[in-house]
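Input record (Table S2, row 430):
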Amino acid sequence: MAGMGPAQGRPPGAPDRAEVERLLESFGRHISSSLLRLYRFMGLDTLEWDGEGAICRDAEGREYLDFVGANGTLFLGRRHPRVTAAVREQLDRLTISSRLFAHEPQIRLAEKLAEIAPGDLQYTFFCNSGAEAVEGALKLARAATGRTEIISTQGAFHGKTFGALSATGRELYRKPFEPLLPGFVHVPYGDADAVEAVISDRTAAVIVEPIQGENGVIIPPDDYLPRLRQLCDRHGALLIIDEVQAGLGRTGRWFGCNHTDTAPDIMTMAKILGGGVMPIGAFMARPEVFEPMDENPYIHSSTFGGNALACAAGYAVLQAIEEEGLLEQARVKGERLMAGLRQIAAQFPQVIREVRGRGLMIGMELTREGLGGVIIADIVQNGLLAIHSLNNDRVMRFLPPAVVTEDQIDRALEIFGAAVERAAAVAEEV
Ligand SMILES: *Cc1c(COP(=O)(O)O)cnc(C)c1O
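Output record (pyridoxal-5'-phosphate complex):
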């Protein structure tokens, strides 16, 4: 009886139960047996089928409120009409270009990004994911400074390719793949003194998230990014701000670093940029910093990066955020959701330690690690998708779309509150 309300019946075109079961077994054999076990454990022993806005539907026709949204990617909701229309239109004209001409979608997107980006980030390199954006940012930092050392933070998540993984601050992901890139140090997050203690004239860059996402929505002190800015300036190092999760509206401003008026030298983005329709990533830089890649455009390149389809999606995303007031929506709806979660937290302090967030990037820290699994299984059964952070099991994360309705927020709070109440009863037994 998973899902929200009664099953609507199998959606048109969806495979029957026997075929769903066969496909799941095949997933276990060809994609991942342990992911299949995890899905089944959560009660999701079917296929994700379709959806719109904040609603996700499975192949049995059951509905869920999606408050995970591919780790925040689905800020515009599923199949936002403006984005799907832009991609459809582009699909009939130019998709992957020859790469021997400039093309319109890429220029329009780069132009628009330069307009909304903080400081003097005028140049954009387009790629296909967050990790790739971080790779490019790290390469550019080395080329632009002629230095090799990078300061990152403990608990950071910057992606899982070798360079990005070298910046990522979690042993579990790093250990099996060592040795990683040399020259990286990890200091405690939110602590500018810790950066001051290790930064030198050998430092190429400091890389930080404006809010640590996968580490459990950690919001640094207000003077953190401004102080990193000063430290980098003093030592001739570059400041890389990784906006892959917080950027493009998630926190109620265009970028996470806007909240404390800090302009980076290099900025990465991905997730929301594709509107949940196309994969796309990007990094931006100041003209002086971008110079090595501007001078020789072939020292860093990507076949699919900047393709017309993905760029058409990206441009439609920025237009939608602007014209539909989604930054404001993220602030207002984030406040409603956070207020509701705080009420639940006040009722059940034995389960919830803290609720924190900015806009629609909200974390809820539980009192004990095991509680997350119990709560997630419960809410999923009742039609709400939310999950813990990748680097921190004890923090549940809520990343709903900006198009979520007030009724949907209230319904999610009901489902979540009931699950916490049941978890509290379990917590008392043990
Ligand atoms: C998700 C994420 C990445 C990696 O993005 P992928 O597209 O999964 O490679 C990098 N940095 C941050 C802050 C992220 O949240």
